[in-house]
Amino acid sequence: MDSNKPQTLPYTTRLQRIYRAFGFTKGYNFVLWFLFGGAFLAFTLSRFIYLDFDGRLCPREPPTNRPYGSRGAVPGECYYYRRGVGKAGIIMHLAGILPAAVLVVFQFLPVIRHRALIVHRINGYIVLLLSTVGMIGVFMIARHTFGGTLEMQTVTGAASVLFVTCMLLSYINIKKLQLEQYRAWMIRGWIIAAHVVTMRLIGIIMAQITSRMDPYYTTTPCAVLDSMFYHNKPAVEALYPDCIGFYTGDTPDQRVIIKGTSGGRPDEIAASLNSAFGASAWLALLIHIIAAELYLRLTSAESERLRKVSYRWQQNAGLTAQRLGDAEPWACPDDDQTLNGDGESFR
């Protein structure tokens, strides 16, 4: 045996076979796709049950053994979701964004792009179309979602505008054969979209912490409380005597103060979560924006490779620009070399 010959560890070879089977050339790219794409896919699949609006998302009857509980939306949201605009908005959002989120995980899978190019192209257009439907739904429900606080409305609008902008820029760039920019804006957009997963985790942790310290209080309309308790008038009046005027019709817009705790009652759970969701959403959005830029910096070699491929394609199509604005003129390095992936298409 030649002692100078480097030995390949068996597990390294197996790992390479695994990630190369998915089309990845770098192991760390496969690990990142598997971990974060897998988590995003698992979360998305778990939400599909809420397409059953009356059965799962907003059941008309209280769940078994939880007479005042909720197993779908945040307690109180269904009061608004059962109305015309709210119901149309939440159904459009779920029916659009959930399938798009599933499909986009496979859009980032290189083996599909390499071996089934037409599938990759069609899938990309479907993702954009479904995302548009989902975002229209978001704007229809933003007024009351997750408590409807001003900070929650603001972060929902900001994240939605950022996502739509990223999708628009990715579409423009792929049409101009700017592959590295298409990749960057797609990654930014969907990492931003995934902030809703982190928001929920942070929000639940915040709600648990604040309910055990000095809890926050929120004001809630008696009409929403009536919906939370499935129109159980005696229960609502016993807990909140001020709501008697709501039931008699003397004060139809009566509101009461609710202490946010992590107890078993839906009103207290809603108060605790709604007071935390605004801050948790902003924090999650910031984390995901930073994460997107960090990932793009860590995979700069892939961006540079795609930039070279783009340059060749743009030359062939007569679209190449040597400079943009006051940037320095750019020419493709090692122009005589064949680039890996030169025959791929991302459109």
Automatic annotation (TrEMBL):
<feature type="transmembrane region" description="Helical">
    <location>
        <begin position="30"/>
        <end position="50"/>
    </location>
</feature>
<feature type="transmembrane region" description="Helical">
    <location>
        <begin position="124"/>
        <end position="142"/>
    </location>
</feature>
<feature type="transmembrane region" description="Helical">
    <location>
        <begin position="276"/>
        <end position="298"/>
    </location>
</feature>
<feature type="transmembrane region" description="Helical">
    <location>
        <begin position="90"/>
        <end position="112"/>
    </location>
</feature>
<feature type="region of interest" description="Disordered">
    <location>
        <begin position="324"/>
        <end position="347"/>
    </location>
</feature>
<dbReference type="Pfam" id="PF10067">
    <property type="entry name" value="DUF2306"/>
</dbReference>
<keyword id="KW-1133">Transmembrane helix</keyword>
<keyword id="KW-0472">Membrane</keyword>
<keyword id="KW-0812">Transmembrane</keyword>
<dbReference type="InterPro" id="IPR018750">
    <property type="entry name" value="DUF2306_membrane"/>
</dbReference>
<feature type="transmembrane region" description="Helical">
    <location>
        <begin position="154"/>
        <end position="174"/>
    </location>
</feature>
<protein>
    <recommendedName>
        <fullName>Microtubule associated protein</fullName>
    </recommendedName>
</protein>
<feature type="transmembrane region" description="Helical">
    <location>
        <begin position="186"/>
        <end position="209"/>
    </location>
</feature>
